[in-house]
Specification:
Elements (H helix, E strand, L loop, with lengths): L16 E5 L2 E6 L2 E4 L4 H8 L3 H15 L4 E11 L28 H13 L4 E6 L6 H16 L3 E5 L7 H8 L3 E3 L6 H4 L8 H13 L3 E3 L2 E3 L5 H12 L7 E6 L16 H14 L4 E4 L7 H10 L4 E3 L12 H11 L2 E2 L1
Parallel strand pairs: 4-5, 4-12, 4-13, 5-6, 6-7, 7-8, 9-10, 10-11, 11-12
Antiparallel strand pairs: 1-2, 2-3
The protein binds S-adenosylmethionine, 6-(5-methyl-2-OXO-imidazolidin-4-yl)-hexanoic acid (DTB) and iron/sulfur cluster (SF4).
């Protein structure tokens, strides 16, 4: 299976130049740079391998690039919950959908610091603060900068997911000590319009470019099981893998279906197709941490073990994601002990 170049992964018409990076074709489009390492068809061919062949290949890649028995652990905290103006069809925090999520204002600094301390004590190495915003207004950003500095001072890696960033905001986050910014592409460009209408794919790419340009590590992935087809799962991975510099961290979420959201009632995805997606992410992004993200509660131990075998090497750790449940830390510790995995 060849990994080669062809037309750009960005669907913009605005490509202006083609340059050579390590023999691969790169496009500088808008502000967004891509290198076509992987064609969607080649990623599709990975998905179509016999399951054992796919997992074997993923495991070989994994062992070449990472300690196969080490899993990075991040704890999430929703610092501002609900009431979001956006229409992401999967999200219980969108104001327009009637879910059980109660709106809560931005948390107080001391409460965030206390949650970060508890996360550190239970073994997390990274603390990720999430806010249900389209993007931060300047008056919102300032208290968050303080949270980032204090969490960083505690010796934790810091991550934030605050929505779209405007000019100058990534710089402020960097100065505050932010290590990672999470902003997901969510799905392939072709399926995106079926899920979200209030921001474009290009808006997301622009935010990722802002993050990359100030040297904050990029955390970007998507959601599987939203009714997309296999080619669209491959299309999401192609977008991520063909970034000039792929994300350091790639969260692969299984849709958590929440009553009241438009995607509630979507046909559930075959768990083995989710494992295949993890394996394809591992093969196409060999240097990235692939995070087994939302959806672990519905998977059971065996499917999670297959995901680790397929190359997942990061999880969200702690009994809550943002508004939905996650396995208890104690259960994760038991699973890690059974599998001989260590937390990093
Ligand atoms: N509001 C910010 C934004 O959208 O960028 C940050 C928080 S938002 C909740 C972070 C990510 O969580 C989304 O991009 C989406 O990928 C993921 N997410 C939200 N709801 C989900 C669900 N029900 N199942 C799986 N992943 C979900
Ligand atoms: C990511 O990719 N998944 C996390 C984190 N980044 C912010 C969020 C999952 C949210 C699941 C639904 C909820 O708990 O509200
Ligand atoms: Fe808002 Fe983020 Fe939820 Fe979209 S995913 S509705 S932007 S909180």
């Amino acid at each position: 299976m060849e990994q080669q170049t062809s037309s750009s992964a960005c669907n913009s018409e605005l490509h202006t130049s083609v340059i050579n990076i390590d023999g691969l074709k790169a496009s500088a489009s808008c502000d967004h740079r891509t290198v076509e390492r992987w064609k969607v068809d080649d990623i599709m061919a990975l998905f179509e391998l016999p399951f054992n062949d796919l997992l074997h290949r993923a495991q070989l890649v994994h062992r070449e690039h990472f300690d196969p028995n080490a899993v990075q652990v991040s704890t999430l905290l929703s610092i501002k919950t609900g009431g979001c103006s956006e229409d992401c069809g999967y999200c219980p925090q969108a104001a327009r959908y009637h879910t059980e999520v109660e709106n809560e204002p931005l948390m107080k600094l001391d409460d965030v610091v206390a949650a970060a301390r508890a996360a550190k004590e239970s073994g997390a190495s990274r603390f990720c603060m999430g806010a249900a915003w389209r993007g931060p207004k300047q008056r919102d950003l300032e208290p968050v900068l303080k949270m980032i500095s204090e969490v960083k001072a505690m010796g934790l890696q810091t991550c934030a997911t605050l929505g779209m960033l405007k000019d100058g905001q990534a710089e402020q986050l960097k100065d505050a000590g932010l290590d990672y910014y999470n902003h997901n592409l969510d799905t392939a460009p072709e399926y995106y319009g079926d899920v979200i209408s209030t921001r474009t794919y290009q808006d997301r790419l622009d935010t990722l470019d802002r993050v990359r340009s100030v040297d904050i590590n990029v955390c970007s992935g998507g959601i599987i099981g939203m009714g997309e087809n296999r080619a669209q799962r491959a299309g999401l991975l192609a977008q991520l893998a063909n970034m000039e510099q792929p994300p350091e961290s790639v969260p692969i979420n299984l849709l958590t279906q929440v009553e009241g959201t438009p995607l509630h009632g979507t046909d559930p995805l075959d768990p083995l197709e989710f494992v295949r997606t993890i394996a394809a992410a591992r093969i196409t992004m060999p240097d990235s941490f692939v995070r087994l993200s939302a959806g672990r509660q519905s998977m059971g131990e065996a499917v999670q073990a297959l995901c680790f075998l397929a190359g997942a090497n990061s999880i969200f750790y702690g009994e809550k994601l943002l508004t939905t449940g996650n396995p208890e830390a104690e259960d994760d510790n038991k699973l890690f002990a059974k599998l001989g995995l260590k937390k990093i």
